[in-house]
Amino acid sequence: MNKNKITLSLTAALALGMSTNALAAGFQLAEYSATGLGRAFAGEAAMADNASAQFRNPAMLTYLEGTQVSVGAIYVDPNVDVKGDLQVNDQTIDQTEARNIAHSAVIPNFYISRQLNDKATLGLAFGTNFGMRTDLGTDFTASIFGNQAEVHTVEINPNLGYKINDQFSVGAGVRYVMAKGHFGAALPSELPSKLNNVIPAKIYQATLANKPLKYMEGEDNAWGWQAGAAWQINPTNRIGVSYHSAVKLDLTGHANGIAFGNTSRPGSLPLELPASAEIASFHQLNDLWAVHASVNWTDWSSFKKLEANIPSMGGNVDIKPQNWKDNYRFAIGTTYQATEKLALRSGIAYDTAAVDEAHRTQTIPETDRTWLSLGAGYQWSKNLTLDAGITYVYAKKAHLNETDKNINELASMLTNPKETKVSFAGTTSGDVWLAGVQASYRF
Question: What CA–CA distances, in Å, run from 87 to 94, 185, 194, 274, 359?
Fold first, then answer.
């Protein structure tokens, strides 16, 4: 098996896992605060409810007085399915399905801000913008294209906000991202019966069933930055803008599996977390109602291909073209001050897919998503505020196709015809429930 065969499925698994468990486009996460969750994260770059505001726009630190601490968590409960036909030479040999492939998770966060004077405010954020975990199992006969993936990122983000005058504020910060993950592809637990003439079932079960084809794990730490600005047009209208830089990771560790001769081999997988930007607005309509909106952009067009580095197998290897496109997210929300202590929130958002129909595959089943959110904030005391939010995310059903020239080469070696094409054609669908809580204290 050549070096392309060795590295292909592990990176395919990476892409599959990230796309199916994430809640913004690609493998991006938006779940940084329960406060924002309750309004579908609409208008975030122009909002300053508590210390969590700095994670989206460090300029909003200038709207926070004294010292503030905010801590919370969001529970993510995804339901994502992949099903379709495993085909050989465009003839279906098996109908297969993997249900609930994305695992539930709890995403914690912590923020603190400290006003230095009437101009400058320091902040420190702990959160994440990317993460996932999936497991398709080996009952899924298309597991040869990737069956497990996990990535965790933790971000430490110190920030400084500066108030130029009563109308304009700016802010900036550095991002230290710590990432680790593992990715794998495996032979299915059972070979489709139509292939028994190629490998008898008893021989397959005894020698190959459930065997890992490729497995890779690694970790890396890297730096990035963010910046933002805010314009207080008048006491009731505000605009905010923010930008997060790309962060380039090189997940370094080891690879093993059948494709590696069952030998542990050092290797790495370069992965770029894309740049993103937001423009948002906040409008206080009257004493009771406020409206806020935002448009987000993510530079997914920078994701052109996957490339792994296995030195003992020849170094850098072009794995697979991706040809993604930039993603946009549109959100609008409202805040209603029901009583002096109770604020009610709502929001709706639409997330566009980061890949065209022609490039969608099993490994990256990117599709459009719609968010519906409700939330509330209660001022328990002069200093303590409690927030909660709940969101339902509906992912549009999408068709996908997967072909792999390296698997085709292997299949041709086994079956001996001049050319054998192995492919998977199916659909992906799913939805996600999110629920979050947060406590904020002002000193």
Answer: 7, 18, 11, 34, 19
